[in-house]
Design brief:
single chain; 421 residues; alpha/beta; Pdz3 Domain; pyruvate-formate lyase- activating enzyme; Rossmann fold; 3 domains; 6-stranded antiparallel beta sheet; 5-stranded mixed beta sheet; 13 helices; 19% strand
Length: 421
Amino acid sequence: MPLKVIKVQPRSPAAKAGIRGGDTILSINAMPINDFFDLEYYANDYQLEIELLDAAGSARNVTVLRQVNKALGIEPAPHKVATCANNCVFCFIDQLPPGLRPTLYQKDDDYLFSYVFGNYVTLNNLRSPQLKRIADQHISPLYVSVHSTDARLRARMMRYERDFDVLTTLRSLSEQDISFHLQIVCVPEFNCGERLRETLSDLLDGSVKVLSIGIVPVGLTGFRDRLTQLKPFTPELAAQTISIIEEFRQLNPGVQAADELFVMAGQPIPEADYYGDFPQLENGIGMLRLSNMNFARRSKALARELEKAKMPFLMLTSRLAAPSIEELAGELDSRLERSSVRVQAIDNRWLGGHVCVSGLLAAADILGQHGAEENEGLIVPSNVFNHDGLTLDDLSQIDLRDRAGRPLLVVDQYFEDWEWI
């Protein structure tokens, strides 16, 4: 479907060529333009012959001469995101409570967003034209949820009806020089143990261009009454999973275990060289190590910031991160004279179940459990809030501060920056 122009930046090359908001781009240099990626991909030439339709449906052609380091200046219509057609037994979105903002229930399975934003996709909804486009435009790397290379087991876990073999698709795209960051969500009694070993063997036999593989334990909330009953991870299974992962790190050091597995197993978080360039960070893998590294670099500046407040602080964190954060807070507190810091772990009662990461803490739990003294300010990790500054239960940073009735310092979850609210 041709791409509609929403807005053109003033004095941009597109504006100078006469392109206007409301126009529809049919082609650039005779190549059809169907979405934002086509626009970026085919608009890189020096001279662009653009075929347009105006709002009234009249066709015209314009020529745009690109300038080095000068944006074309076209704001396209929002991309219509491909949604997931699967019905995974472990889907986290299906486990959310009702009544949240609609965006939290959106299931993205769009390969373009996978490339641009690092979102994990299943590849299940792709047909031959999309697979050809990935190869032709070299849309790489892609982030793919594999879970299992056994086609029957994967279909049972993800409950799709189409006959689909993810390993065959990965191998075919690899032959066309497409690379992958992969994800495996381990679900007890489905794809753990020997099943995980078989999946890793298949993925690392040299036929798939693997950049990294992140192995994470299934996340279970308290809203599963009408869903498939699943068992949570145990410390023993976490330790076994780490052991299996270690076997395959000899083949590819990009095979990495989630922070949660080490914490559950009672094992120390690996040093920085385990994570390389942290390719699975958006999956929460290496978050605790990177936080420790950045804290070492920024702790003096953070201590100066707290000293200026001349008051004690309560640093809030999740159950998962609590041991690591307590160690950092102790070091921070030793630097303070006019202030102090102590730590409080917040249980995720709002989601229930076995969710223990800070990025899924709700304001209701923070307000109900922080237990701060009357004169204490709160330090909250930034990943409690989304890009709009809202918690999962729709409280803004200002609302959280006001309801807590005390100063609020929002600290980046990697200790890179902070902001007073």
